[in-house]
Specification:
The protein has 7 helices and 10 strands.
């Protein structure tokens, strides 16, 4: 079984990815969504956590062999960066969403030397805005960002365009299309729902997928 299939099944099993096309969720932006994602749940299941962290370590070794430091996104990527760094025997840190207003007023926590090769660890990529902000902060502080590794990506057009514009590579353990197809095969959703889910993925602001 391929890694992307293993992770997709894991996320569905623990409801870290939960499809509800007949009763959409509402995002903070107001967009109606057939899917709810909470990858923090992966930390609560030992078997799934092992699959995820070993998978992230494997992706990093395959794609970013000369990495020197892992940097997690705040807050969802921190635990995954820490566990994966432990597996790989690497230092880690994380990037705050904003600089502290006290002490040394750090935005980057942990040791980062100019020129160090960094991989950013993220849990989920949708439109890509927050992770690209992290990449930019690291670059501004002298890091050489090799790329991003993430648990799950939607593959949204806006996200892919932003990553391309920022000239940053992302590799994910699994993706929206894979999870949707496995969800249909295993009875979480109906086969005919897959096309609706992909329609949402292609353009989240177009609500014509809703019956």
């Amino acid at each position: 079984m391929e890694l992307k299939e293993i992770i997709a099944k894991d996320l569905l099993k623990i409801k870290a990815v939960f499809f509800r096309p007949e009763e959409p969720f509402t995002w903070a932006s107001g967009i109606k969504s057939p899917v709810y994602t909470d990858n923090r749940l992966t930390l609560s299941d030992h078997e799934v956590r092992c699959d995820v962290e070993n998978g992230l370590a494997s992706l990093i070794k395959e794609n970013y062999g000369d990495v020197e430091v892992l940097m997690g996104t705040s807050t969802a990527g921190i635990a995954h960066a820490a566990i994966t760094a432990h597996i790989l025997g690497l230092p880690m840190g994380y990037v705050r969403s904003g600089a502290k207003d006290h002490g040394r007023k750090n935005q980057i926590e942990g040791k980062l030397l100019p020129g160090q090769k960094v991989v950013v660890v993220e849990d989920l990529i949708s439109t890509g805005g927050s992770v690209i902000e992290v990449v930019n902060i690291l670059r501004e502080n002298g890091a050489e960002v090799l790329g991003i590794v993430s648990i799950f990506t939607y593959g949204m057009k806006k996200g892919l365009e932003r990553l391309a514009e920022a000239n940053v590579k992302n590799v994910s353990l699994t993706n929206f299309d894979e999870i949707a197809n496995i969800a249909a095969k295993e009875g979480y959703i109906k086969e005919e729902d897959v096309a609706r889910l992909i329609q949402f993925r292609n353009n989240p602001s177009d609500e014509s997928w809703i019956r």
